[in-house]
Design brief:
With about 800 residues, this protein is α+β, with helices and mostly antiparallel strands. The protein has a domain of about 350 residues. It contains 24 helices and 13 strands. Strands 1, 2, 9, 10 and 11 form a five-stranded antiparallel β-sheet that branches. The chain is extended, with a radius of gyration of 43 Å. The two termini are about 35 Å apart. The relative contact order is 0.11.
Length: about 800
């Protein structure tokens, strides 16, 4: 079992350390293996190891069953597609234990698929015939119009010719008129073709026909008013009706090939008028019959799909459940006797009793004569990390896991992130009006969370819903910091009492604070409202927020260093306590802890000392007198001591640790004892870069590599102490930007529209103000402050103690399968 560490060095918290894990082995009889894995999947507290990693998927014991499950999944996907096309949704039934067996479900799905496939094939054939008949009916109508108009034109021309008796021909004369009139025996028999061609191809169709037959055809086209359904593709297509007159079989062969190339559907057209009328009546009758037949076929198909929809979710879950069970069984190794399966996996220590109960129930329910054997194995492998979270803490834990999953039983930053993340966000987003807007939006998500959780939301809405409790905490802290800044959409209010200042005379109002005198006690909470709108507002708030950012930053970085102490104590690593935690704490506080002290002293005493000058000359001229920049007696001596401690702490971090690690390595392997000593410090092994496996327990110690690694770590911390402190100034910068943007929208949009004394201008101003506030301040500024708070936690805070090189506990659980489906 994996060692639990020192315990006792910090208060017990569910999230501070990951759950204690154990490597377990379960020996399961073959006859109860399926039911046992099913019960363990319901429990969801064991992560199985793949004991057949060297085998391909096709060589494993249950490959045939997985293939059957995949085939069932394919059939279910086919049913889902058909239901989607028919606009039938699956019934959201409760997923209870089904009495339908796997083999019975496989047979039932096969029968339904065969029946549905046959119905679809018949419907497709009928639909294609129906579409062809519709096209044929259109061709009969249009071609009839062609022939009728041509007959009228020919009759009129013949009457005109007989009347004139002039023997002159014209371009409007019928084809071969002269030959027909002079010698009836020379009349040429013309053939005709009729059909439909896509409208977009009509011009090209006409040109190709003309060129192929060298103009020896007569073509007439006319567009159809409404698009028709193409029999082949089943899509609505705009088409032209055409009639082609030709002479000779060679011309006919060319025309047929061209029609095929242009997807022109051809239909026969009788020349006799009586036959035309008979064809129209026959086609209309067949269309009505086919329509009724198709409607009956669709009704039959819908009835099949509705019967499938009522049980679809149940079948789908059963198929996925069975596939997951057989996939897990394939990870188990088969005993030599092939009468039992051997499973290994990680489980939390507290789950041991529950797992054994599940094994016992499976033995009884499967009526097996032999029970399963459960035992805990000793191992040096690093266990997975498992935190028990709820719907409130899970989003905060995801923020930490996005940086890296905690090493096994490493101190978890998620405990502090629950408070520090929304607080740092609120420092940048301080406005209690905007905070209330965020809170109301989040409150809607929380009140309707049960309904929203069962719906499919968009990507952005899904992220907001998943982080609803994070946003709620951010909004509450924003209301708090907004009350401290005394800003409600940039407008100050005297909520906690009257302002402490008043004008000396009427001329000083709204001009500057120089004319103000203190007439009452200090404003009890937050910033005095009189500062807003005064000339000294920006210098005052800049100074306040800049110093506050440094204090918050130094406090959070110190918390990170203190957490490195608890990690070292938990893993019993005294080297990290004496040669990492202590010098880092001394270095950071000798410089920036001292700066924080000066800020507090300056606030308390009201001194006008220049802190920039103090910090710069602490390094450049540490022995010079401070003069008017002295804040307290003994300050010069204290600065010299702190500077000396900071200089000493750098080699303190750099040199001793690699030497001590080398000495520990030499002691451990003295006398050719290459096996690791029992209880050897795990973190020291990690420092040495050792990877334990079954064949050997140590690697050659490379002092140069360890020293270079420690030198990089030291340089990174020293430079990072400066850059990380400066990075916290983003709290001041974003807070200032948020306040100024809010002030601009209020002064330049809302107040300006109000001052125009025009109702239209006022409405426009209010609309612009609302959209600017929502779009810029409540969306863009929220996202900006969120990302900056994320960076402060990942880089400035977590890099002081958090390694984040672990891996998540991923148990075999049917509940996770349901979540993936949702």
């Amino acid at each position: 079992m994996a060692r639990g560490g020192g315990g006792g060095c910090c208060p017990p918290m569910d999230l501070m350390r990951s759950e204690a894990m154990q490597l377990v082995q379960v020996i399961i009889p073959s006859e109860s293996a399926h039911l046992t894995v099913s019960y363990l999947g319901d429990l969801g507290l064991i992560q199985f190891k793949d004991l057949n990693a060297e085998k391909s998927p096709f060589q494993r014991t249950y490959a045939a069953q997985i293939k059957r499950c995949s085939e069932m999944a394919r059939k279910l996907r086919f049913f889902k597609e058909q239901m989607s096309k028919a606009d039938i949704s699956a019934s959201p039934t409760q997923l209870n234990e089904t009495h339908l067996k796997f083999d019975d479900l496989e047979i039932k799905l096969g029968e339904l698929e065969a029946e549905l496939t046959e119905v679809n094939a018949n419907n497709e054939k009928l639909q294609r015939t129906y579409n062809e008949l519709l096209e044929y009916n259109t061709v009969l109508q249009k071609a009839g119009e062609f022939f009728y108009s041509a007959q009228r034109s020919a009759t009129a021309q013949q009457r005109e010719m007989e009347a004139n008796q002039s023997g002159q021909t014209s371009l409007e004369s019928p084809l071969l008129e002269q030959e027909m009139s002079t010698d009836p025996s020379k009349q040429v028999k013309l053939g005709s073709l009729s059909g439909l061609v896509p409208k977009e191809k009509a011009m090209a169709f006409e040109r190709i026909l003309f060129r192929a037959t060298r103009g020896n055809i007569f073509l007439r086209q006319e567009p159809i008013d409404e698009p028709v359904t193409d029999p082949v593709s089943g899509e609505k297509v705009a088409k032209n009706a055409f009639v082609i007159f030709y002479s000779g079989e060679r011309a006919k062969a060319k025309i047929l090939k061209i029609c095929d190339a242009f997807n022109a559907n051809r239909y026969p057209f009788p020349e006799d008028v009586n036959k035309q009328l008979h064809a129209v009546q026959e086609v209309s009758g067949r269309i009505s019959e086919l329509k009724a037949t198709i409607d009956m076929g669709l009704a039959h198909r819908d009835s099949i799909l509705k019967s499938i929809a009522s049980d679809f979710e149940q079948w789908n879950h059963l198929a996925k459940r069975e596939k997951a069970i057989y996939h897990t069984l394939n990870m188990l190794s088969v005993d030599v006797t092939k009468k039992c399966l051997v499973a290994e996996g990680w489980s939390p220590v507290f789950a041991g009793v529950q797992i054994q109960d599940a094994l016992q129930r499976a033995t009884v329910d499967s009526k097996s004569q032999v029970g399963s054997i459960f035992q805990v194995l000793n191992t040096k492998e690093s266990p997975p990390t498992y935190f028990q979270t709820n719907k409130f803490t899970s989003a905060f834990q995801e923020i930490v896991d996005a940086y890296g999953v905690a090493k096994y039983q490493e101190a978890n930053p998620g405990v502090f992130t629950v408070v520090t993340f929304p607080f740092l966000f609120a420092v940048m987003f301080g406005d209690w009006g905007h905070g209330i807007c965020l809170f109301l939006a989040t409150l809607y998500l929380i009140i309707r969370e049960k309904k929203l959780a069962s719906q499919k939301l968009g990507d952005i809405m899904e992220m907001m819903f998943g982080g609803r409790y994070v946003i709620m905490m951010m909004s509450l802290f924003s209301i708090y910091t907004g009350l401290i800044y005394n800003e409600f959409f940039s407008v100050p209010f005297e909520l906690f009492g009257k302002s402490a200042y008043a004008c000396r005379d009427p001329t000083c109002r709204d001009s500057t604070t120089d004319g103000l005198v203190k007439v009452r006690d200090t404003y009890p909470f937050g910033v005095d409202p009189v500062w807003h709108g005064s000339r000294s507002e920006l210098p005052f708030l800049n100074s306040l927020k800049m110093k506050m950012s440094i204090l918050l930053g130094v406090a959070q970085m110190n918390l990170g260093i203190v957490m490195s102490y608890f990690n070292a104590k938990f893993f019993r690593n005294s080297i990290n306590v004496w040669y990492q935690f202590i010098p880092q704490l001394i270095f950071l506080n000798s410089l920036f802890g001292y700066l924080s002290l000066l800020i507090i002293v300056k606030w308390c005493t009201g001194s006008k000392a220049d802190l920039y000058h103090v910090m710069i000359y602490m390094f450049l001229s540490p022995t010079d007198d401070l003069g008017e920049n002295q804040l307290f007696s003994g300050q010069k001596t204290l600065q010299l001591v702190l500077l000396l401690l900071a200089l000493v702490s750098v080699p303190w971090m750099l040199i001793p640790k690699p030497l001590l690690l080398k000495r520990q390595h030499e002691r451990r392997h003295q006398g050719h004892q290459y096996a690791m000593l029992q209880g050897t410090d795990e973190s020291v092994g990690a420092e040495l870069g050792e990877h334990h496996d079954d064949s050997h327990d140590h690697e050659e110690f490379e002092f140069s590599e360890v020293f270079v690694h420690q030198m990089i770590h030291t340089i990174e911390f020293v430079l990072g102490a400066v850059s990380n402190t400066a990075s916290y100034l983003r709290l001041w910068a974003l807070s200032l930007a948020h306040s100024e943007l809010s002030s601009v929208f209020y002064d330049k949009v809302l107040l300006m529209a109000w001052g125009m004394n025009n109702i239209v201008a006022l409405v426009i101003g209010i609309v612009v103000f609302v959209f600017a506030t929502v779009g810029v301040l409540l969306v863009m500024e929220t996202l900006s402050a969120f990302l900056h708070a994320l960076r402060l936690h990942w880089v400035e805070f977590q890099n002081k103690f958090y390694e984040g090189d672990g891996y998540k506990f991923a148990p075999f659980s049917f509940a996770l399968i349901r979540e993936e489906e949702d």
